[in-house]
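Training component of the fellowship. As part of building independent skills, the fellow (R.M.) carried out the full modelling exercise for a liganded target. The chosen ligand was D-xylitol-5-phosphate. The inputs are recorded below so that the supervisory panel can assess the work.
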Amino acid sequence: MSYKGIEIAASVMCMDWLCIGEQLSTLKQLKIDYLHFDIMDGVFVPTLSIGPLVVNQIRENTTILCDYHIMVEEPRRIFEQYTAEEGSYFSIHYEACRNLHRDLVMLRKLNFRPGLVLNPATTLENIEYVIEEVDKITIMMVNPGYVGQKLVPQTLDKVRKLREWRDRVKYQLKIAVDGNVSFDNIPKMIAAGADTLVVGTSGLFIKGYSLKESYQQLQAAIDEGLTMKENCAN
Ligand code: DX5
Ligand code: ZN
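Fellow's submitted model of the complex:
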């Protein structure tokens, strides 16, 4: 269930893997909207993360919806490795697909909600002819591949422009931000127009804090962002 209209996706890669069962039940109690799975191939991004074996085991042990973030070159090759439960998102990178339109249409056919992710260097003009095919656009606020990086500040302007574009053409799509979604950055991200937050080591899984403590701070940062946004509108 979203918090004041803002949806929250918890980055599985940033969880405490030694206490994953316990953390999954706390995330359920906190009513986190999605489990965000960062799938990496060591080619599109230099690192590797988890694959279907681990993902499916986690899925069998929770009812939280999935939000796949696929950092894989030519991702069409792996679509069928994941199960599309109703409501789950499957987001692929603009930069990784040779036939982006075909791939997005295919995701819808497979019953996923198609999503598109843009790296910091990718402009919005690139997606003009596919925007109608997607249910969510994720703006990477850092270059993908690693946790714990610093925000690329120009990306905030991209969120603002995407929000203006969406409001102008009235598309029903979510605007997500991923990377360094921290308590300091969340208010600016929400004021810029984000309505979905991917939270990892900066905004939820923070050393020395329990998940419940971090979640309270996260809610406070969202409140601050919504007030900033309202003040901008007036
Ligand atoms: C970055 C990943 C993010 C990451 C965000 O490539 O896509 O999902 O886990 O976490 P932090 O807060 O560490 O930037
Ligand atoms: Zn991600």
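The panel noted the following from the submitted structure. Residues 204 and 213 are 9 Å apart (CA to CA). Residues 11, 13-14, 36, 38, 69, 142, 144-145, 147-149, 178-181, 198, 200-203 surround D-xylitol-5-phosphate (ligand 1) (CB under 6 Å).
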